[in-house]
Amino acid sequence: MMRIIFSCTIGLLIAGTGYGQTKTTKPVAPKTATTGAVKAMPNPLKNGKDSASYALGIRIAQNLESQGLGKLNVAILQRALADQLGKKKVIIPEASLNACIEDFVAEANQEKIALAKVASEQTKKQAKVFLDANAKRPGVITLPSGLQYEVIKNNPDGVKPVASDQVKCHYHGTLIDGTVFDSSVERGEPIVFSVGGVIRGWQEALQLMTVGSKWKLYVPADLAYGDAQAGPKIGPGSTLIFEVELISIEKE
Length: 252
What we know:
With 252 residues, the chain is α+β, with helices and mostly antiparallel strands. The protein contains 8 helices and 9 strands.
C-alpha cells in the first residue's frame, strides 16, 4: 500500500517537464465595467527549480486524488514537507508514520464504500423502474435470473457456444440513459474472449445465442458489476444495455 501511495518518481516529473521548459506568459485579464483592467497575479515560478517544485506538487496531488486520498489537511501536509526537507524535528516519529497513513487510507476506503453503496441503491431503484417497464414491451424476454433480451437477428441453424469456448463478438454498450461506455462497433474491430471470462449476464446470454445471431441484452447490476465502479462511466449498481452480435466460435 505504501509503495502505491508514494509512487511519484522522477518518471512522473518527466511527464510534466513542460513546467520547467516552457516560458510562462501572463494571462490577459478580462475587463469589467466596474473595475477596468484587472492585473494578473504575479508568477511565483522564477527558475527551473521553482517550476520543478511546483510540478512535483501537482504530481503528488494527482497521485493522491487518483486513489481517493485528496481530503487531506493541506496546511499540515505543507508543514510536513517543510519540516522534512528543512531537516527540522518532525512531530510524528518515523516508527509511527506508516500506521498513521494506513489508518487514514482505511477510513477513506470505508467512506468510499459507504458512498458507493448509497449511489448503488439509488441507481438500482431507477433501473428497476426501467426494467419493469421494459419487461412489458413486445419481444422482450425476461429470464429467471433477471436478464432481459430481445432478438434483433436470429440464425436458427447456428451453433451455440459453451462456457469454455472462445468467441468473436461485436458489441455496443450503453447505460439506461443512452450513455455509451464501450463499443467494439465504434472501434471497428470485434473482440475475441472466453465465454466464461465475462460478466454473468453475458455468460448466460451467449450460451443461449447461436453463431450469426444478434441480441439486445438488458443486464441488471447483479449480473454485471454489482456495487462496484467499473471504469469512468459505469457507476455502482448500473444496469447495462448491450447489442451483441455473435460472429463465430474461435478454434484453439
